[in-house]
Write a structure and sequence with these properties.
By secondary structure, the protein is mainly alpha-helical. The protein has helices spanning 3-35, 40-66, 72-165. It is built from 3 helices and no strands. It starts with a helix and ends with a helix.
Length: 166
């Protein structure tokens, strides 16, 4: 086979691979979005960042493989690589990986609950004791204030009666 044709086939294969890799990177972004909730601004920012990095990577690949010349069949090859990857693996991997990560987070949550359940039980008991003590002190303070008000009131009456008799 002609050396030029082999070079073009190699460039075509590299372009197909780069198309699939670009979609793999976007799937990583999709997995992150499924795990961590994003608002519209961050989604737009992530997409912009993705496309800027992707375009730089594509330009770098074309510069190395084809002296920076953008060729139509290269772009079609990247689209073909994206299409093949998307139809064969994309949804399966995104669902599998994001589901697995969610299960891992759920397992970590259960382990933390198991570890901290006795600690929370002790804190609740200690809190109950402190609330009981606080309520007793509060009742005692209320009783003291009430008694002091009565004493003060009776003292005022006595003082006013002594002043009237003078």
């Amino acid at each position: 086979m002609n050396k030029a044709i082999l070079l073009e086939l190699r460039f075509f294969g590299t372009s197909v691979m780069w198309g699939a890799l670009l979609l793999v990177f976007y799937d990583v972004l999709r997995i992150i979005r499924r795990i961590l909730a994003h608002n519209g601004f961050f989604i737009a920012f992530e997409d912009l960042l993705y496309w800027v990095i992707s375009s730089l990577l594509i330009f770098h690949m074309m510069y190395q493989q084809n002296n920076g010349i953008i060729r139509g069949f290269s772009i079609l090859a990247m689209l073909l690589g994206m299409l093949i990857y998307h139809s064969l693996l994309s949804e399966l991997l995104v669902d599998l990986i994001s589901g697995s990560i969610n299960k891992v987070f759920a397992l970590i949550g259960k382990l933390l609950t198991l570890i901290f359940k006795p600690v929370l039980f002790l804190f609740r008991k200690i809190k109950r004791i402190f609330v009981w003590i606080y309520n007793k002190i509060k009742k005692f303070n209320h009783f003291l204030l009430k008694s002091l008000k009565k004493i003060l009131k009776s003292g005022k009456i006595a003082v006013t009666e002594n002043e009237k008799s003078d």
